[in-house]
Amino acid sequence: MPSLKILLYPDTRLRKKSAPVGKVDDGIHLLLDDMAETMRNAEGIGLSAPQVGKNIRVIIVCDAEDEEKPEEKNLPESASETPVIEMINPVIKNSSGGEYGTEGCLSIPGFSAGVKRKESVEVEWLNRNGDLERTEKQGLTARIIQHEIDHLDGILFVDRLSRLKREMMLKDMDRTFLRD
Ligand code: CO
After folding, report:
1. Which of 89, 84, 40, 37 is nearest to 64 (CA)?
2. Which of 30, 35, 95, 156 could bridge 118 with an S-S bond, Cβ 3.0-4.6 Å?
3. From the CA of 44, how far away is ligand 1's center (Å)?
4. pLDDT digits over 12-24, tens only?
């Protein structure tokens, strides 16, 4: 499985709205496998297809919530052992609560900020077999799902900051990424 190139801010492809997947075929399976490899190599906890140059509604999410289950005897030792959920055409059906948490993004390396997200989301998606799944996720897993679905709509976490904070960070980002 090859590692894919992750697009970096301010690549305009990160700002495009992604199209739904029509058919879950071999091409999608290959993409999912390559995305998992890419995410692991970059030590990320989530990744969206548009970040690797495919403008389709596919995301992968480390199920961090699973990691915290106390009944689990063999706790994962690293992110590479955390279960990954593959989501095709994910849609948030319900959500509740709200909390701040620090977020970063593989497309904006070196930057992070506190972002307000829903605490709990009920999400529906197609798995790699093309079957519809629906579940409720909380905490970090819910946060990753919201962050990655935002990517499918061309939204970056900096867009979710207060105006003042956003303007400061964008200025900083432009200094870093537009240097040459
Ligand atoms: Co991101």
Report:
1. 84
2. 95
3. 9
4. 999 999 999 999 9
Residue 29 has what pLDDT? 98
Neighbours of 80 (CB within 10 A): 13
Can 148 be counted among the known catalytic residues?
Answer: yes
Please give the model's pTM, rounded to 2 decimal places: 0.92
Retrieve residue 117's tokens.
């997200």
Which tokens belong to 24?
């879950």
The CA distances from residue 118 to 30, 56, 58, 101, 180, in Å, are 31, 24, 21, 10, 38
Average pLDDT on 157-180 reads: 93
In contact, 149 and 160? CB cutoff 8 Å: no
Cα 105 to middle of ligand 1, angstroms = 4
Query: Collapsing DSSP states into helix, strand and coil, what is residue 11?
Result: coil
